[in-house]
Known about the structure:
Chains A, B, C, D: InterPro entries: Homeodomain-like_sf, HTH-type_TetR-like_transc_reg, HTH_TetR, Tet_transcr_reg_TetR-rel_C_sf. By secondary structure, chain A is an all-alpha fold. The first copy, chain A, is built from 9 helices and no strands. The first copy, chain A, is elongated, with a radius of gyration of 20 Å.
Amino acid sequence: MTSSAEPVSRAExxxxxxxxxxxxxxxxxxxxxxxHATGIADVAARLGIGHGTFYRYFQNKxxxxxxxxxxxxxxxxxxxxxxxxxxxxSTLDEYRAQSARIGEALGRIFGEDPRVPRLLLFEAPGxxxxxxxxxLDLFDLAAALTAAYLSHGVELGYLRxxxxxxxxxxxxxxxxxxxxxxxxxAPEAQAAQSEALRRVMYDGIAxx
Amino acid sequence: MTSSAEPVSRAExxxxxxxxxxxxxxxxxxxxxxxHATGIADVAARLGIGHGTFYRYFQNKxxxxxxxxxxxxxxxxxxxxxxxxxxxxSTLDEYRAQSARIGEALGRIFGEDPRVPRLLLFEAPGxxxxxxxxxLDLFDLAAALTAAYLSHGVELGYLRxxxxxxxxxxxxxxxxxxxxxxxxxAPEAQAAQSEALRRVMYDGIAxx
Amino acid sequence: MTSSAEPVSRAExxxxxxxxxxxxxxxxxxxxxxxHATGIADVAARLGIGHGTFYRYFQNKxxxxxxxxxxxxxxxxxxxxxxxxxxxxSTLDEYRAQSARIGEALGRIFGEDPRVPRLLLFEAPGxxxxxxxxxLDLFDLAAALTAAYLSHGVELGYLRxxxxxxxxxxxxxxxxxxxxxxxxxAPEAQAAQSEALRRVMYDGIAxx
Amino acid sequence: MTSSAEPVSRAExxxxxxxxxxxxxxxxxxxxxxxHATGIADVAARLGIGHGTFYRYFQNKxxxxxxxxxxxxxxxxxxxxxxxxxxxxSTLDEYRAQSARIGEALGRIFGEDPRVPRLLLFEAPGxxxxxxxxxLDLFDLAAALTAAYLSHGVELGYLRxxxxxxxxxxxxxxxxxxxxxxxxxAPEAQAAQSEALRRVMYDGIAxx
DNA sequence: AATGAATGAGTATTCATTCAT
DNA sequence: GATGAATGAATACTCATTCAT
Lengths: 208, 208, 208, 208
């Protein structure tokens, strides 16, 4: 009765905790051994729980990977909202600072843990058509965000007035993607990569 | 014995032909239904051959996908060599023409048949670690080629002298990758994509 | 300790009540969805109790179905004893009246609720050998009762003196069985069925 | 080329043979251990084949039991057609002879191998609703046949003119059913059972 | 050389039962 | 006493691969 008013009892909290742990363990397994090579038993064993327990928390193997991706997508979109939302800045200085923050945030997410790009870019798309579509949705979402960001830059007069924001957004996201993939093999090159990306973006490659 | 000197007898030719057809059929299946969802029986059925026959031409399921990827890699590197090799040009005009040719060729390969990027980027990396490494190798190769191309551009004075060719190459390849992925959903936007890519590359996005 | 002498305390009564409800719920489930398709969780959910609670009242899934069958067998034998016991009548008129009463009673039990024949004839025998034997025991019991009834009829001079009571009893019970099964699909035909059964029984089908 | 005209090659014949053996083995298993207690592996092991082979011949476990039942139904209807068809006789003597033949045939099918009634009456109805319906269909079919047989008897003046053929048919079939069930425990009583059945049928049980 | 019948390793999933709370 | 979270034994089914014909 004391804490019955709170929406979460201790049992409920325990439950959410285990749910979280299962998602994490599944992420580990899928990223390390691959979705198809991972059995539910592997995920359960990693947590030291019975594999029947898994099915108390998730419908089936396909279900968990959706939640794993949800989780990653949440992390990424979290990095691109709030203070980093396209319209959260209004001066050039702020714009530049935001630009740097976004780069850093993405760099941290993708670069710190190579399992993130591995799962999202290498494992997920091959799971099935529905998942491939989810990843494409994610690219579309990212393109829309970047486009909004560019539009804002054009409005501020910071970027070229004739910029094709939509397609340029996709090109820039492609560069970020390339950085993420590079980081799978050469994590140490990430800073230089980001710098190169920024230079291409702002200055192009042509001699003046 | 009579014709053992000749590299290819009629039987041998037949054999090579079927081998080729199996690779193509496997490509079709893998790209359309996915590697794991495709059975050897599906590939054989598409050709109207017995599925036992498959094993007379390829070791196993894993073997064939390697050959499918070989085939695609060959097509891509083919587009980037000969007249499009990094050092095949020596004037700015040639350099620009080559640049356009490469863009066109890649656009054709990736854009004309969405199954190519789908297999190479969405299916292959998730098959297993070895295949993921192959795809990363492919990215490295592409980066090396692009870097050589950029170096040449710098030497010619066409590109910025302080260009970080290695990392810029990866950024540019990332943009190409982004274009290829975009083409999965919006093939009609490809031309505009390429144009945006080129403008970013040569001019950057900043207002002057 | 205080009321250990009394056979039923309030708690004990509660317990018996829930026990009864579990049996009924199990009967419902088994008859509607089938024994194998029914989970203990289904039975518990129907009562709104936790499925762990089930095991405080019954040993296991196999145990409960025994009790469900017990219950039905009790209902049936109840209809065939007391005033309907084979030797409860002594005149032809009483015999006839008893005959009608038995028919009515069985008709009510089997006909009113098709789940009774469904469980007893369709579900139970397939559960396992032991249960099949129980059902055969039930047939034997019914045959013995009917045989006693026929013997009595012979003694009263109401039935043919040369009647093979044992085997005729089984034949008659077979007809009742047939009626019960028919009622699964055509409950409305039950009265006509019973009439036809009686006519065959008493008059045969041959023209005179 | 020699025998390519024949619809069945040796391979095809082999295939049909194994198919037949699987049905028989499944019948054995289902009748002896029960449908649910029987695994596909059991059926395969009984034949000394790999259990994967089973799936080359039947869709799934549910599929095979349908074929087993088909087989039994075929045997039974076979006994009730041709010379035993309701309208295959035209004189009283023939009618009686046919009656005896049918009794004999059914007695042989049900009595010789107790696994037949066990599977059909004890196992099949509890498998699932669809199978229960099949069994009810079988009862309906049998009732229709018996009714036709009785109608014919009425026309011939052999049976009571006021006979309720439909319901009487079901009563009679019930007696046959009773005999079949009895034979599970007392196969030796079958002849006496049949005789009692016939006497009830033709003469009734009442004293004259 | 081609075939496809046979094979069985491998795996996702269910559900009766237990037991700590 | 009641609960339901945890468990893992059990099993149907798939499909890559082999090999006799």
